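Re: beginner question about structure tokens

> Can someone show what the tokenized structure looks like for a real chain? I only ever see the sequence side.

Sure, here's an example I had lying around. Input first:
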Amino acid sequence: MKPTESKEMYLKVIFDIYLRGQEIRSVDIAKILGYSKPSVSRGMNILRDEGYINMEPYGNITLTEKGKETAKNVKMRHIYLTKYLIKSLGIDETTAMKDACHIEHVISREAMEAIENYVKED
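And the corresponding structure tokens:
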């Protein structure tokens, strides 16, 4: 698993499922991300070992506080970047969302804070 991007993608998907109030299962994560079940299983084991999630045997996945905080930060970066790309550059929403998904993993804290402030001014 790539140190940041893969971990953050998994956490964002888990967080989205959590926010919908649904049970979180590896099979659902695999389906959403288009990854194989063995790849997701490996990813979940890494996230568990690093303290981001708890897993019941053959069952539900839950986010730890560390996992929730990290996922929430990724989600907020995605939201602000999407709004910025639409508002400042006139990018269509679908393209903005796709691009934000890539940028959110590599953007500097300084640039992200500037974008947040710009978007919040409205």
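Each token stands for a local structural state, so reading them left to right follows the chain. The longest helix spans residues 65-89.
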